[in-house]
Automatic annotation (TrEMBL):
InterPro entries: LysR_HTH_N (IPR000847), LysR_subst-bd (IPR005119), WH-like_DNA-bd_sf (IPR036388), WH_DNA-bd_sf (IPR036390)
Cited PROSITE patterns: HTH_LYSR
Gene3D superfamilies linked: Periplasmic binding protein-like II, Winged helix-like DNA-binding domain superfamily/Winged helix DNA-binding domain
CDD domains cross-referenced by the UniProt entry: PBP2_OxyR (cd08411)
Keywords: Activator, DNA-binding, Transcription, Transcription regulation
Domain of life: Bacteria
The protein's name in its UniProt record: Probable hydrogen peroxide-inducible genes activator
Domain HTH lysR-type: 12-65
Lineage: Bacteria, Bacillati, Actinomycetota, Actinomycetes, Mycobacteriales
UniProt-listed Pfam families: HTH_1, LysR_substrate
Family: Belongs to the LysR transcriptional regulatory family.
Length: 311
């Protein structure tokens, strides 16, 4: 029977959202910085208080029940509202004091963070950044659930409940094995990809989706070619260096300090394909000028480090 006096705590809702997102108790516990037994107990207390089974757990899998699915949007909204209360209570300090949980997509983090973290320390000395590197879909869910405070991702990203503030654009380049016919060539056409073994990132990476879309626009077949594929951009670069194919990367990944010596670069003709990076926030936080100040720092760093253009 439901305890009519029971009111879930914010932490209990965070636990439910983390388990529903990860579908894995250990991963959810690590995300929230708590032990697995404590997480299981918090979820059990929430289910007991509500009188509902929210999650089904077996030795092989974790599933969200229909009742859990029905409560998910309300749990997300409640956690987001409480985060907004905490942000407002910070007063003049705003959200850029204390811990700030920043999500970053894997194709941006290695190139943006080395410049961004020192810049944040200089501009916001009271800020303690916590970095969460993950794919777009999981970052969106973490943002909605309150597990992170903001995210740096490419647009477009179709996600209800979050707002994107465009920051900068960067061109794409083509990485090829050193000595390849296209090595050092400027102004190539995307149609040139039709004759190359194109390496793609795994499903879930927005750069994969952008590469596929570029190939579709110029009628270059890309899917079903059974070429090598990689779980990370670093692995894709190593495959290129090993002569397994070519791959499309953002310009931030082509600097001499980040590129393998066995890899060459070709640039696309104007208008060059590229991507727009944006600051993603929960809707309730989008009007906060402090976050926009954070976005300005990101844009300045991207322009200085790899020549990105502010939007």
């Amino acid at each position: 029977m439901v305890d009519q006096r029971f009111v879930p705590s914010v932490m209990q809702l965070r636990v439910f959202l983390a388990v529903a997102e990860r579908l894995h108790f250990r991963s959810a516990a690590e995300e929230l910085g708590m032990s697995q037994p404590s997480l299981s107990q918090a979820l059990a207390t929430l289910e007991e208080g509500l009188g509902l089974h929210l999650v089904e757990r077996s030795t092989r899998s974790v599933l969200v029940t229909p009742a859990g699915q029905q409560l998910l949007p309300y749990a997300r909204a409640a956690v987001a509202a409480m985060d907004a209360v905490a942000d407002a209570a910070a007063g003049s300090g705003g959200p850029l004091m204390g811990q700030l949980r920043i999500g970053v997509i894997p194709t941006a983090a290695p190139y943006l963070l080395p410049g961004l973290l020192p810049a944040l320390a200089e501009r916001f000395p009271s800020l303690r950044p916590r970095i969460v590197e993950d794919q777009t879909a999981r970052l969106v869910e973490a943002l909605r659930s309150g597990a992170i405070d903001l995210a740096l991702m490419a647009v477009p990203t179709d996600a209800a409940g979050v707002v994107a503030i465009p920051l900068y654009t960067e061109r794409f380049a083509l990485l090829v094995p050193s000595g390849h016919d296209l090595d050092g060539v400027d102004g190539i056409s995307p149609e040139a990809l039709a004759d190359e073994p194109l390496l793609l990132l795994d499903e879930g990476h927005c750069l994969r989706e952008q590469t596929v879309e570029l190939c579709r626009r110029v009628s270059v077949p890309v899917l079903g070619r059974e070429e090598s594929r990689a779980a990370s951009l670093a692995t894709a670069v190593q495959c290129v260096a090993g002569g397994l194919g070519v791959t499309i990367v953002p310009e931030s990944a082509v600097g001499p300090e980040t590129r393998d010596p066995g890899v060459g670069v070709a640039t696309f003709a104007d208008p060059s394909p590229g991507r727009t990076m944006a600051l993603f926030l929960r809707t309730a936080a989008a009007a906060d000028d402090a976050y926009r100040g954070f976005g300005h720092v990101v844009t300045e760093v991207a322009a200085e480090v790899f020549g990105a253009q502010a939007v």
